[in-house]
Amino acid sequence: MGQYAPVWDHRASVKVTKDMSGTNQVTLRNPQGASVKVSLHGGQVTSWRNDRGEELLFSSSKAISKSLKSTRGGISVFFPQYGNGGSVEQHGFARNKIWTIEDNPPSLKSFDTQGKSFIDLLLKPSEDDLKFWPHAFEFRLRVSLASDGSLSLTSRIRNINGKPFKFSFAYQTYFSVSNISEVRLEGLETLDYRDNLCQKELFTEQGDAITFEAEMDRVYHLSPNCIAVLDHEKKRTYLIKKEGLPDIVLWNPWQKKSKAMVDLGDEEYKKMLCVDGAAIEKPITLKPGKEWTGRVELVMVPSTHWNDDL
Ligand SMILES: O=P(O)(O)OC[C@H]1O[C@@H](O)[C@H](O)[C@@H](O)[C@@H]1O
Protein backbone atom coordinates (compact mmCIF):
# COMPACT_ATOMS: atom_id res chain seq x y z
CA MET A 1 0.00 0.00 0.00
CA GLY A 2 1.14 3.57 -0.44
CA GLN A 3 3.21 5.23 2.19
CA TYR A 4 3.90 8.60 3.70
CA ALA A 5 6.56 9.97 5.99
CA PRO A 6 5.29 9.17 9.51
CA VAL A 7 7.03 11.92 11.48
CA TRP A 8 5.51 15.01 10.01
CA ASP A 9 2.59 13.81 8.19
CA HIS A 10 -0.45 12.59 10.00
CA ARG A 11 -2.87 14.12 7.50
CA ALA A 12 -1.28 13.00 4.29
CA SER A 13 -3.16 9.93 3.24
CA VAL A 14 -3.51 7.25 0.65
CA LYS A 15 -6.98 5.89 0.16
CA VAL A 16 -8.30 3.21 -2.19
CA THR A 17 -11.91 3.47 -3.39
CA LYS A 18 -13.90 2.40 -6.47
CA ASP A 19 -14.63 4.76 -9.35
CA MET A 20 -17.96 4.89 -11.21
CA SER A 21 -17.05 1.92 -13.37
CA GLY A 22 -16.10 -0.19 -10.33
CA THR A 23 -12.35 0.04 -10.93
CA ASN A 24 -10.11 0.71 -7.95
CA GLN A 25 -8.71 4.21 -7.73
CA VAL A 26 -6.19 5.67 -5.31
CA THR A 27 -6.46 9.14 -3.79
CA LEU A 28 -3.31 10.80 -2.48
CA ARG A 29 -3.66 13.86 -0.24
CA ASN A 30 -1.21 16.22 1.35
CA PRO A 31 -1.75 18.13 4.60
CA GLN A 32 -2.32 21.38 2.70
CA GLY A 33 -5.36 19.90 0.95
CA ALA A 34 -3.93 19.13 -2.51
CA SER A 35 -4.90 15.78 -3.99
CA VAL A 36 -4.21 13.36 -6.82
CA LYS A 37 -6.37 10.50 -8.09
CA VAL A 38 -4.90 7.52 -9.90
CA SER A 39 -6.97 4.81 -11.54
CA LEU A 40 -5.74 1.24 -11.66
CA HIS A 41 -7.14 1.30 -15.19
CA GLY A 42 -4.01 2.25 -17.12
CA GLY A 43 -2.28 3.70 -14.06
CA GLN A 44 -3.91 6.88 -15.35
CA VAL A 45 -3.84 10.01 -13.19
CA THR A 46 -7.40 11.27 -13.48
CA SER A 47 -7.24 14.32 -11.22
CA TRP A 48 -4.66 16.70 -9.73
CA ARG A 49 -6.03 19.44 -7.48
CA ASN A 50 -4.17 22.22 -5.76
CA ASP A 51 -4.68 23.20 -2.10
CA ARG A 52 -7.68 25.36 -3.12
CA GLY A 53 -9.38 22.35 -4.63
CA GLU A 54 -8.94 23.63 -8.21
CA GLU A 55 -8.55 20.93 -10.86
CA LEU A 56 -5.34 21.33 -12.87
CA LEU A 57 -5.89 18.54 -15.40
CA PHE A 58 -8.41 18.42 -18.21
CA SER A 59 -10.91 15.56 -18.46
CA SER A 60 -13.33 15.22 -21.33
CA SER A 61 -17.01 15.47 -20.42
CA LYS A 62 -17.53 12.67 -22.93
CA ALA A 63 -15.12 10.33 -21.19
CA ILE A 64 -16.53 6.86 -21.61
CA SER A 65 -16.02 5.33 -18.19
CA LYS A 66 -16.99 1.76 -19.00
CA SER A 67 -14.89 1.57 -22.11
CA LEU A 68 -11.88 -0.74 -22.19
CA LYS A 69 -9.88 2.26 -23.34
CA SER A 70 -8.41 4.86 -21.05
CA THR A 71 -10.50 8.01 -20.77
CA ARG A 72 -9.46 11.18 -22.60
CA GLY A 73 -7.79 13.46 -20.11
CA GLY A 74 -5.55 13.34 -17.04
CA ILE A 75 -2.14 11.74 -17.49
CA SER A 76 -1.69 8.50 -19.41
CA VAL A 77 1.33 6.28 -19.71
CA PHE A 78 2.20 5.15 -23.23
CA PHE A 79 4.16 1.89 -23.40
CA PRO A 80 5.60 -0.08 -25.21
CA GLN A 81 4.82 2.00 -28.28
CA TYR A 82 4.13 5.61 -29.08
CA GLY A 83 1.76 6.17 -32.00
CA ASN A 84 0.45 3.43 -34.26
CA GLY A 85 3.47 2.33 -36.24
CA GLY A 86 4.18 -0.97 -34.43
CA SER A 87 2.70 -4.35 -33.54
CA VAL A 88 0.40 -3.19 -30.74
CA GLU A 89 -2.51 -0.76 -30.45
CA GLN A 90 -2.04 3.03 -30.78
CA HIS A 91 0.16 4.35 -27.92
CA GLY A 92 0.69 0.83 -26.54
CA PHE A 93 -1.35 -1.40 -24.26
CA ALA A 94 -0.21 -0.13 -20.83
CA ARG A 95 -2.87 2.61 -20.73
CA ASN A 96 -5.65 0.09 -21.30
CA LYS A 97 -4.63 -2.53 -18.73
CA ILE A 98 -5.60 -3.01 -15.12
CA TRP A 99 -2.55 -2.40 -12.94
CA THR A 100 -2.04 -3.68 -9.38
CA ILE A 101 -0.90 -1.90 -6.25
CA GLU A 102 2.54 -3.03 -5.16
CA ASP A 103 3.01 -2.99 -1.39
CA ASN A 104 6.74 -3.52 -1.21
CA PRO A 105 8.40 -2.36 -4.43
CA PRO A 106 12.19 -2.38 -4.80
CA SER A 107 13.53 0.85 -3.31
CA LEU A 108 13.67 3.83 -5.62
CA LYS A 109 17.08 5.47 -5.46
CA SER A 110 17.16 9.23 -4.80
CA PHE A 111 13.48 9.34 -3.87
CA ASP A 112 13.08 11.49 -0.79
CA THR A 113 9.95 10.37 1.07
CA GLN A 114 9.90 13.48 3.24
CA GLY A 115 6.54 15.18 3.00
CA LYS A 116 5.32 12.97 0.17
CA SER A 117 2.26 10.86 -0.21
CA PHE A 118 2.76 8.16 -2.85
CA ILE A 119 1.58 4.92 -4.36
CA ASP A 120 3.37 2.20 -6.33
CA LEU A 121 1.65 0.42 -9.20
CA LEU A 122 2.81 -2.60 -11.13
CA LEU A 123 2.08 -3.95 -14.61
CA LYS A 124 3.25 -7.28 -15.97
CA PRO A 125 2.32 -8.63 -19.43
CA SER A 126 -0.54 -11.10 -19.74
CA GLU A 127 -0.31 -14.20 -21.95
CA ASP A 128 -2.29 -12.25 -24.53
CA ASP A 129 0.06 -9.25 -24.44
CA LEU A 130 2.99 -11.58 -25.03
CA LYS A 131 1.39 -12.83 -28.26
CA PHE A 132 1.56 -9.33 -29.76
CA TRP A 133 4.66 -8.08 -27.99
CA PRO A 134 6.73 -11.10 -26.92
CA HIS A 135 8.94 -9.44 -24.32
CA ALA A 136 8.59 -10.08 -20.58
CA PHE A 137 8.84 -6.95 -18.46
CA GLU A 138 7.94 -5.45 -15.10
CA PHE A 139 6.69 -1.88 -15.21
CA ARG A 140 6.64 -0.03 -11.88
CA LEU A 141 4.95 3.35 -11.69
CA ARG A 142 5.29 5.54 -8.62
CA VAL A 143 2.86 8.47 -8.40
CA SER A 144 3.77 10.98 -5.75
CA LEU A 145 2.26 14.17 -4.33
CA ALA A 146 4.67 16.48 -2.50
CA SER A 147 3.89 18.89 0.34
CA ASP A 148 4.12 21.84 -2.11
CA GLY A 149 1.43 20.20 -4.27
CA SER A 150 3.74 19.12 -7.09
CA LEU A 151 2.99 15.82 -8.76
CA SER A 152 5.60 13.38 -9.99
CA LEU A 153 5.45 10.14 -11.90
CA THR A 154 8.42 7.79 -12.01
CA SER A 155 8.40 4.79 -14.32
CA ARG A 156 10.78 1.90 -13.92
CA ILE A 157 10.74 -0.66 -16.72
CA ARG A 158 12.75 -3.85 -16.24
CA ASN A 159 13.60 -6.37 -18.91
CA ILE A 160 13.03 -9.84 -17.43
CA ASN A 161 13.29 -11.40 -20.88
CA GLY A 162 16.25 -13.42 -22.11
CA LYS A 163 16.82 -10.98 -24.98
CA PRO A 164 17.04 -7.20 -25.42
CA PHE A 165 13.87 -5.36 -26.44
CA LYS A 166 13.04 -1.90 -27.77
CA PHE A 167 10.24 0.37 -26.71
CA SER A 168 9.03 3.95 -26.93
CA PHE A 169 7.34 5.74 -24.09
CA ALA A 170 5.43 8.87 -23.07
CA TYR A 171 3.57 10.53 -20.24
CA GLN A 172 0.69 12.27 -21.97
CA THR A 173 -0.53 15.15 -19.82
CA TYR A 174 -3.77 17.00 -20.56
CA PHE A 175 -3.41 20.36 -18.84
CA SER A 176 -6.57 22.27 -18.07
CA VAL A 177 -6.28 25.76 -19.64
CA SER A 178 -8.56 28.83 -19.75
CA ASN A 179 -8.51 29.04 -23.55
CA ILE A 180 -5.95 27.36 -25.78
CA SER A 181 -5.65 30.53 -27.92
CA GLU A 182 -4.43 32.48 -24.87
CA VAL A 183 -1.79 30.01 -23.73
CA ARG A 184 1.93 30.08 -24.53
CA LEU A 185 4.64 27.57 -24.08
CA GLU A 186 8.26 28.49 -23.40
CA GLY A 187 11.42 26.42 -23.54
CA LEU A 188 11.26 24.88 -27.02
CA GLU A 189 12.60 27.89 -28.95
CA THR A 190 15.06 27.11 -31.80
CA LEU A 191 14.52 23.35 -31.50
CA ASP A 192 13.91 21.02 -34.42
CA TYR A 193 10.55 19.31 -34.56
CA ARG A 194 8.74 16.79 -36.71
CA ASP A 195 5.28 17.82 -37.76
CA ASN A 196 2.90 14.86 -37.70
CA LEU A 197 0.41 16.93 -39.71
CA CYS A 198 2.96 17.34 -42.56
CA GLN A 199 4.13 13.75 -43.12
CA LYS A 200 6.60 14.07 -40.23
CA GLU A 201 8.58 16.75 -42.07
CA LEU A 202 11.39 18.36 -40.07
CA PHE A 203 11.12 22.07 -39.18
CA THR A 204 12.97 24.42 -36.83
CA GLU A 205 11.01 26.39 -34.25
CA GLN A 206 11.37 30.12 -34.97
CA GLY A 207 9.17 31.99 -32.49
CA ASP A 208 10.05 33.26 -29.00
CA ALA A 209 7.31 31.14 -27.53
CA ILE A 210 4.81 28.69 -28.96
CA THR A 211 1.20 29.80 -29.27
CA PHE A 212 -1.78 27.81 -30.49
CA GLU A 213 -3.97 28.92 -33.39
CA ALA A 214 -4.85 25.70 -35.17
CA GLU A 215 -4.54 21.95 -34.87
CA MET A 216 -1.05 20.94 -33.70
CA ASP A 217 0.72 17.59 -33.50
CA ARG A 218 4.51 18.00 -33.21
CA VAL A 219 7.46 16.13 -31.75
CA TYR A 220 10.29 18.35 -30.48
CA HIS A 221 13.66 16.62 -30.20
CA LEU A 222 16.30 16.90 -27.53
CA SER A 223 14.24 19.35 -25.51
CA PRO A 224 15.44 20.97 -22.27
CA ASN A 225 14.52 19.23 -19.03
CA CYS A 226 12.20 22.04 -17.98
CA ILE A 227 9.56 23.77 -20.06
CA ALA A 228 6.69 26.03 -19.05
CA VAL A 229 3.05 26.43 -20.04
CA LEU A 230 1.79 29.93 -19.21
CA ASP A 231 -1.92 30.57 -18.79
CA HIS A 232 -2.30 34.20 -17.77
CA GLU A 233 -6.07 34.15 -17.59
CA LYS A 234 -6.07 31.36 -15.04
CA LYS A 235 -2.94 32.87 -13.47
CA ARG A 236 -1.35 29.46 -13.67
CA THR A 237 2.02 28.42 -14.94
CA TYR A 238 2.79 24.76 -15.20
CA LEU A 239 6.41 23.67 -15.12
CA ILE A 240 7.17 20.34 -16.70
CA LYS A 241 10.45 18.92 -15.42
CA LYS A 242 11.59 15.66 -16.92
CA GLU A 243 14.41 13.11 -16.72
CA GLY A 244 15.20 10.35 -19.20
CA LEU A 245 12.65 11.73 -21.68
CA PRO A 246 14.39 13.62 -24.52
CA ASP A 247 11.31 14.52 -26.58
CA ILE A 248 8.24 16.67 -26.08
CA VAL A 249 5.02 16.20 -28.04
CA LEU A 250 2.52 19.06 -28.34
CA TRP A 251 -0.97 18.12 -29.37
CA ASN A 252 -4.31 19.83 -29.67
CA PRO A 253 -6.91 18.44 -32.13
CA TRP A 254 -8.71 21.79 -32.54
CA GLN A 255 -12.23 21.63 -33.87
CA LYS A 256 -12.48 18.86 -36.38
CA LYS A 257 -15.74 19.35 -38.22
CA SER A 258 -15.06 16.54 -40.68
CA LYS A 259 -13.76 14.00 -38.19
CA ALA A 260 -15.12 14.79 -34.73
CA MET A 261 -13.51 12.98 -31.83
CA VAL A 262 -16.25 10.89 -30.27
CA ASP A 263 -14.87 11.21 -26.75
CA LEU A 264 -14.33 14.99 -26.80
CA GLY A 265 -17.09 17.60 -26.54
CA ASP A 266 -17.48 20.06 -29.46
CA GLU A 267 -15.69 23.04 -27.94
CA GLU A 268 -13.58 21.18 -25.41
CA TYR A 269 -10.38 21.44 -27.44
CA LYS A 270 -10.24 25.04 -26.19
CA LYS A 271 -9.87 23.89 -22.61
CA MET A 272 -7.01 21.43 -23.06
CA LEU A 273 -3.37 21.29 -24.04
CA CYS A 274 -1.59 17.99 -24.33
CA VAL A 275 2.12 18.03 -23.54
CA ASP A 276 3.87 14.67 -23.58
CA GLY A 277 7.28 14.08 -22.03
CA ALA A 278 8.45 11.28 -24.29
CA ALA A 279 11.17 9.01 -25.59
CA ILE A 280 10.04 8.44 -29.15
CA GLU A 281 12.55 9.49 -31.77
CA LYS A 282 15.07 6.93 -30.63
CA PRO A 283 13.27 3.97 -29.07
CA ILE A 284 15.05 2.68 -25.98
CA THR A 285 16.93 -0.61 -26.12
CA LEU A 286 16.77 -2.48 -22.83
CA LYS A 287 19.13 -5.40 -22.24
CA PRO A 288 18.13 -8.47 -20.19
CA GLY A 289 18.11 -7.76 -16.46
CA LYS A 290 18.41 -3.98 -16.97
CA GLU A 291 16.01 -1.27 -15.83
CA TRP A 292 15.13 2.07 -17.44
CA THR A 293 13.79 5.03 -15.48
CA GLY A 294 11.81 7.99 -16.84
CA ARG A 295 10.41 10.69 -14.62
CA VAL A 296 8.26 13.75 -14.91
CA GLU A 297 7.49 16.33 -12.23
CA LEU A 298 4.67 18.83 -12.68
CA VAL A 299 4.68 22.01 -10.67
CA MET A 300 2.15 24.82 -10.65
CA VAL A 301 3.63 28.24 -9.82
CA PRO A 302 2.27 31.80 -9.96
CA SER A 303 2.54 33.03 -13.56
CA THR A 304 5.05 35.78 -12.99
CA HIS A 305 7.55 33.67 -11.08
CA TRP A 306 8.21 30.74 -13.34
CA ASN A 307 11.54 32.00 -14.66
CA ASP A 308 13.15 31.83 -11.21
CA ASP A 309 12.47 28.16 -11.06
CA LEU A 310 14.17 27.13 -14.29
O1 LIG B 1 -6.60 9.42 -29.42
P1 LIG B 1 -5.34 8.96 -28.77
O2 LIG B 1 -4.93 7.55 -29.17
O3 LIG B 1 -5.37 9.11 -27.28
O4 LIG B 1 -4.18 9.89 -29.30
C1 LIG B 1 -4.28 11.27 -29.15
C2 LIG B 1 -3.08 11.99 -29.76
O5 LIG B 1 -1.94 11.70 -28.98
C3 LIG B 1 -0.81 12.50 -29.36
O6 LIG B 1 0.23 12.20 -28.51
C4 LIG B 1 -0.43 12.18 -30.77
O7 LIG B 1 0.70 12.96 -31.15
C5 LIG B 1 -1.60 12.43 -31.68
O8 LIG B 1 -1.26 12.08 -33.01
C6 LIG B 1 -2.81 11.64 -31.21
O9 LIG B 1 -3.94 11.96 -32.02
Automatic annotation (TrEMBL):
It catalyses: alpha-D-glucose 6-phosphate = beta-D-glucose 6-phosphate. GO terms for biological process: carbohydrate metabolic process. GO terms for molecular function: carbohydrate binding; glucose-6-phosphate 1-epimerase activity. GO terms for cellular component: cytoplasm. Keywords: Isomerase. Belongs to the glucose-6-phosphate 1-epimerase family. This is glucose-6-phosphate 1-epimerase. It comes from Anisodus acutangulus.
